[in-house]
């Protein structure tokens, strides 16, 4: 089943963020009585790939500022990927986390997701500018630089921001918030108070979280959670 290497491979990927916005806990340690909310599977090149979401909770709150056109919420939960089969321990895959959003109408509307992670990759340019590669599941970086509206990186907890613009008419859009490669047969990512905001929105917003794994040969499997109305 490929589980024999879980402890060793997962230990290589282990990382903990004490962020108030997004906590990433990568490794083989799980919650004993976690509730599996949704899951999906494929067989790719002889390997079974199972993705799931657990303990999902999206909590809508009154938006700061009190505008009737603004929305705000927080997301807690956990995403997992398990690979089984011969050579699963040597596999390299990509893990994605994101949302589908649905709205009834908007006036110059936007939806954004803010999260913190100590694992942004930075390439610093001239005169204090920087090019940011959002790969929070891989190698850490420490710096202090502000990069437009894309990311603000501090020496403790870098913050990143992903955003979509809304059409005036009703629509559905998918936003990949973060992705990164992982080695081995197991990956777990814990979401702690991922912060979502919306502006210029007429009516409510439906938020559907998802987790996706893309294998080395390009096959992918996605599990979508239930829609939460904010």
From TrEMBL:
Keyword Signal found: yes
Pfam assignment, any one: MspA
Q: What keywords appear on the UniProt entry?
A: Signal
The residues forming the signal peptide are 1-34
Concerning Gene3D superfamilies, the annotation shows: Porin MspA (Ig-like beta-sandwich domain), Porin MspA ribbon domain
InterPro entries (UniProt xref): Leukocidin/porin_MspA_sf, Porin_fam_mycobact-type
**SUPFAM superfamilies documented for this protein:** Leukocidin-like
Output this protein's name. Porin
Q: Which organism is it from?
A: Rhodococcus aetherivorans
